[in-house]
Design a protein that fits this description.
By secondary structure, this protein is of the alpha/beta class. It has a single domain, classed as Alpha-Beta Complex (2-enoyl-CoA Hydratase, Chain A, domain 1). The protein is about 40% helix and about 20% strand. The chain is built from ten helices and eleven strands. Strands 1, 2, 3, 5, 6, 7, 8, 9 and 10 form a nine-stranded mixed beta sheet that branches. A two-stranded antiparallel sheet has the order 4-11. The longest helix is centred in the first third of the chain and has 32 residues. It is globular.
């Protein structure tokens, strides 16, 4: 066979052209998405992962896994928005496997559950290995709670842990000085990690914790009113103790022991869908379009520790942060 002159070269040029086109296309997408993100035109994208194919009526599973933080709350908000736009989704299962986390993110997720209930969709909670503190908070308002046999739950309470560094500063020979404006003499109360805390510091943080606890207690009392009608009983249960699944069913924090498929069956029943006839999808975040070192990510090159990084770390360590969290 006689090869045509220049054929190899033409092939190479074709491949290079394709690579060039793909590169330009990717860069165009990157800058387009980046521009839309900059002006707030892109909502968080949620994808569906098929769990079970069945009929046209559907149940959505929304996972709450790991520590509850702002990112988790944003995901749940996006997932709920996805559900609200889809008339084929007749019920939701909130799949919780979490030790809790931030006070505000937990409350934001609780609010999203309330929005789902207002849309007349049944919301059933399914507890995995742990649904404690904030993990319980987000689920206490659901219509029905199913806990796995090995679930650890409860831990209804608020905690804050703060570092003070007076002893460390003395050991290294550094004497920090904290100054406040004349008009704000209370500014450094519970707001100075370079000295040992006094009663005023502790009292201020304690008042913050008590306020957050009161909200938690109220959420449980309202959400579980049918199972725990006596508010005094809620007070007795909500003392920070953790409970097994059996104990949670006995004291009213959960309705039954079972697995995810049992929770799905309850959701079907409450949505008047024949048993086993609902299609089930799990709502998930897509893989990131670009990694931390990509076009839209941050510079991933190694950086030295600078003064701003140290200052930010000290601020974070020294800030009282109430948490619905079980360590």
């Amino acid at each position: 066979m006689v090869s045509r002159p220049g054929g190899f070269l033409q092939g190479v040029l074709l491949v290079l052209a394709l690579f060039l086109f793909a590169g330009v296309f990717a860069i165009g997408i990157a800058f387009g998405v980046g521009a839309m993100l900059a002006v707030g035109q892109v909502d968080e994208v949620v994808l569906e992962r098929t769990v079970r194919e069945a009929g046209s009526q559907r149940i959505a599973v929304i996972p709450v896994s790991g520590g509850i933080d702002d990112a988790q709350a944003r995901f749940v908000r996006a997932a709920v928005a996805h559900v609200m736009k889809d008339t084929s989704i007749d019920a939701v299962v909130l799949r919780v496997d979490s030790p809790g986390g931030g006070v505000s993110p937990s409350d934001q997720i609780w609010r999203e559950v309330e929005r789902l209930k207002q849309s007349r969709r049944p919301v059933v909670a399914s507890f995995g290995g742990m649904a404690a503190s904030g993990g319980y908070y987000v689920a206490c308002g659901t219509d029905h709670i199913v806990a796995e046999p090995t679930t650890i739950t409860g831990s209804i309470g608020v905690i804050a842990q703060i570092l003070t560094m007076e002893g460390l500063m003395e050991k290294i020979g550094v004497q920090p000085v904290t100054l406040v404006a004349s008009g704000s003499p209370q500014k450094d109360v519970a707001n100075d990690l370079f000295r040992t805390w006094n009663d005023a510091d502790r009292a201020k943080v304690k008042s913050m914790l008590d306020a957050a606890y009161a909200v938690f207690n109220k959420r449980v009392a309202t959400g579980r009113a049918s199972a725990i009608p006596d508010p005094k009983q809620v007070d007795a249960i909500a003392n920070g103790s953790i409970y097994t699944a059996e104990q949670a069913v006995a004291n009213g924090l959960a309705d039954q022991i079972g697995y995810l498929d049992d929770a799905i069956a309850v959701a079907e029943q409450r949505a008047t869908i024949p048993a086993g006839r609902a299609s089930v999808v799990e709502l998930v975040l897509p893989p990131p379009l670009f990694s931390s070192s990509g076009l839209l990510g941050r510079d991933a090159s190694p950086r030295g520790v600078d003064a701003d990084a140290i200052r930010s770390l000290l601020v974070e360590l020294g800030s009282p942060r109430p948490m619905y969290l079980m360590h």
